[in-house]
Amino acid sequence: MHIAEGVLSGPVLAAGFAITVVGVGIGLKKLDFEHIAETGMMAAAFFVASLVHVPIGPANVHLILNGVVGLLLGWAAFPAIATALLLQAVFFQFGGFTSLGVNTAIMALPAVAGYYLFAPLLNKSPKIAAGAAFACGFTAVMLGALLLGGALFLSDENFLEVASIAVSAHIPVMIIEGFITLFCIGFLKKVRPEMLPGKENSP
Amino acid sequence: MLQETFISQKSLIQNLTPWTRTLAVIISSTVIALSNNLSVLLPALGTALLLVSVAGLDFRQVGRRLLVLSGFLLMIWLILPFTYQGQIVWRISFLSVSHEGLLAATRLTLKTCSMLLIFLTLISTMSTADLAHALHSLKIPAKLVLLLLITYRYIFLIEDELQTLLRAAKVRNFKPGTTLHCYRTYAYLLGMLFVRAAERAQRVHQAMLCRGFNGRFHSLREYHNRSLDYGFLALVSIIAVLMTLCEWKVITLPTLF
Amino acid sequence: MHQTHSAILSLQKISFHYPNGPTVINDLDFTLNKGDRIGLTAPNGSGKSTLFHLIVGLLKTSSGRILCEDQEIIKEEDFRQLRRRVGLLFQDADDQLFFPTVLEDVAFGPLNLGKSKEEALTISHQVLQRLELVDFADRITFKLSGGEKKLVALATVLAMEPDVLLLDEPTAGLDHKTKLRLIELLNNFTDLTYLIVSHEFDFLTATTNHIYTMENGTILVDEELHIHHHEHAHRSGQQPHRHI
Amino acid sequence: MHQTHSAILSLQKISFHYPNGPTVINDLDFTLNKGDRIGLTAPNGSGKSTLFHLIVGLLKTSSGRILCEDQEIIKEEDFRQLRRRVGLLFQDADDQLFFPTVLEDVAFGPLNLGKSKEEALTISHQVLQRLELVDFADRITFKLSGGEKKLVALATVLAMEPDVLLLDEPTAGLDHKTKLRLIELLNNFTDLTYLIVSHEFDFLTATTNHIYTMENGTILVDEELHIHHHEHAHRSGQQPHRHI
Questions:
Q1: I want to staple D17 with a disulfide (CB 3.0 to 4.6 A). Which of B237, C18, C182, D23 is the partner?
Q2: Which residue has the higher pLDDT, C153 or D227?
Q3: pLDDT for the residue C230
Q4: Residue B103 shares a structural domain with residue B183
Q5: For the whole model, what pTM was predicted?
Q6: What pLDDT is stored for residue D94 in this prediction?
């Protein structure tokens, strides 16, 4: 989920940067030195995980996983996602410096939102926890897609159709990410619950 | 396999310090991002192509990277000319193509392509470690730089682990498909990747403690810019200023449209 | 080694090198007949793991032919069929296990082979029983000890009901007790054909009928190593120690 | 073992158990004197790595005292001071090399000890020179081989200029050549006191003066293993093999 460079207008790029600077600032502030290695390593793991393509019908989509990132890292999702996106730009030229702010905001805002909305539910009954995990994966992609569409539309009102196609193209991804998040969180809950929020310290 | 395709290129570009290259990309891509005038964007693409050839990059590899944009650009060209409000130039049955739509699609194509090429030529040809230190000397917070360095260090290792797990799945006859079983398998596989990452992070943190880490990070790199660097930055700045003046119609070049 | 009609697996002059890399496997000829229990011992980096990866198609040979019961294995689909019959036990069990619980991990293979959930569970329980791991079914795989993981990994392979087992350094990192258990298990698998790569000569003598060496990317079948005993005296102690 | 005034490190009846877990280290007494070169050998899971983690304060003892030159180490700040003097070489070099390039990894420790950039670089170059790794300074960590990583990890530890080295299974996964190099290096460190945990008896005999075993969470200093040679005959071959 990223917007290439050269698509968005100046004000939208600036707004994206402003959000990202604030988000990364909060994330870094909350990130004590005990968790730097952990956050760096998780950013690396998410970067690698996003290389995985999962099939949907005849096509493939690559995973976004911002829901999982949010649940595991809280506000540290901002610096972690910014880092992973910068690496994606360097390795694959997905985006560049000018779009880094907007792209980080598109993925990290929903991640943090997912953290606040759904993390508290993960410690409830298995059914509620599973529902929350699915909803988190689904919502994080949905919000991301809406932000992406919004960024396009605000750049130029004539991008409306492009924006709506971009958003609707993410609908199957939302469902897949819902399931992936559901199973992934279920896995972590069994195998290493201390990675999930509320088990250790706050974000 | 994760590869840094353009990193080992030897050329004039490699003689510039990472600091120079990073700053040059920040300046030039900001100017291009804010430009809309075709008489600015066409020369921009020309300059970008010139850079690519100076850098001596493999054109096939570069083309492959441009293909990344093709899906998006195709969508732009299939939609924008028909939906953009403006003066109609063609009418094909119920579809009408607007002059502004064509212009917008052209503009977008020029911008994305030239920006991708500039980034590719100046940034993707250096190691991310160099980029991290360059960003540090451009006042990016040390904590973020340290994060970037650690992440870069371990992506190769984790990618290796991913490939091994995927092989293990393959050996047990796993075949991806649009099924819940497939999604569950991928989710568990990734979960395992995260668990291993977290366990390694714990050991890495311990290793950092053993070496006296207390949260402060000191970058060792210093960039000794030479006249080549200043010359290059001066050139980039002059072009940037000319483009900006042109964009604001302070000066005009012969327009093509 | 002569090829007979009962050759399950036959490698004919296979070679492998990484792109622009040195040759790892070099004109290797080898035949595995039904019932064979063969050990391979060789120095590090002599291409043993590569050989196993070539057999199951995780790597593609640069030249040569791989045959399974006289049928040449060429396409990925052929290898998919082959992998049902040839089970590979990875050197590091952690690389092989990625499900939350032991039972899910063991059932993964059968499910991939198109078995129903019930069938997969039945098979998994049977395999776990056979390996005396029934109590492990609901344990979290990741939290098991190294030795336990190795046995579970073996269970995941056996659940695919293979005819041939390829074991890559099965004793690496195992404690003595687990090694003995593994020896016992392998000796009980009377219906299995297997090929074991290992540094540990004693383990190979206990589990295989023939031991060959690998050198320069090929298997030296002419220089079979004979099973023999070691007598030697220690001036000090019954302490566990290792000779190299 | 008797405590003398030259004891660098002294462990007095230390115990450790994980919360609600079994006891891993049990009333362990041990003294390391200046110049000691001691090997520890023990079965898997006997708490060797735990012992090292306790010494440098990565884990906190449940009871007992740790003294460094007669000064008790209690607070995290004490351990921070201790870690300048006691360098721990991790089992997996990938855990210890967390920077993309070799030089910044080696210089990280000295910088944290408050050295200036120039001093840190000088020290790093010296250490790399000492280990004959000068050409490695600008190499990318993840592209190094396993053996190279191990040597660079050793360099990162030595750059802190410790008095004592703790080496956790230093030969794990190393090829023969690197093992020999490591033996040579350790024997050249005449100014170092060290404690090595290893499975490989031959490595310990080549690098240490005393070898003890660990059992039930404690070090058996009474049952020192003596360095001795093995004579035995093989009926077949000069093939490399290993005895257990």
A1: D23
A2: C153
A3: 45
A4: no
A5: 0.91
A6: 95
Task: Extract the tokens encoding D161.
Answer: 């200029």
Contacts with C175 from chain D: Cβ below 8 Å: 43-45
Cα B17-B18-B21 angle, rounded to 5 deg: 90
* Angle, in degrees to the nearest 10, between helices B128-137 and A77-92: 120
B121: in domain = yes
What is the domain extent for residue B92?
A: 13-126+224-247
Region at D172 (left for phi over 0; alpha for psi -120 to 50; beta for the rest): beta
A125 domain-assigned: yes
- Does residue B6 belong to any structural domain of this protein? no
List of residues 6+ apart from C234 with CB closer than 8 A: D228, D230
* Interchain contact C138–A (C-beta under 8 A): no
Shortest distance between the Cα of B204 and any Cα of chain C, in A, equals 19
Contacts with A115 (C-beta within 8 Å, 6 or more apart), sequence order: A70, A71, A73, A74, A75, A77, A197, A203
- Mark whether B18 and B121 lie in a shared domain: yes
DSSP designation for B89 = E
A116 in contact with chain C, both atoms CB, cutoff 8 A: no
The CATH number linked to A103 is 1.10.1760.20
Decide if C143 and A190 are in contact by the 8 Å CB cutoff.
Answer: no
What CA–CA distance (Å, rounded) separates B111 from B73?
11
D113/chain B closest Cα distance in angstroms: 6
Number of domains in chain B: 2
- Cβ contact, residue pair A190, C100, below 8 Å: yes
Establish if B30 belongs to a structural domain. yes
Across the interface, whether the CB atoms of D242 and C175 are under 8 A apart is answered no
Residue B151, C-beta contacts closer than 8 angstroms, at least 6 positions apart: A40, A41, A43, A44, A47, A80, A83, A84, A87
In which domain, by residue range, is A103 found? 10-195
Is D230 in contact with C231 (Cβ distance < 8 A)? no
Residues of B with CB below 8 A from D54's CB?
none
What's the complex ipTM?
0.90
Q: What is the mean pLDDT of chain D?
A: 85
Domains of chain C, earliest start first: 1-85+163-227 (3.40.50.300), 94-161 (no CATH)
pLDDT score, position A201: 45
Is A186 an interface residue toward C (CB < 8 Å)? yes
Q: How many domains does chain A contain in total?
A: 1
How do residues D102-137 score in pLDDT, each as one tens digit? Answer: 999 999 999 999 999 999 999 999 999 999 999 998
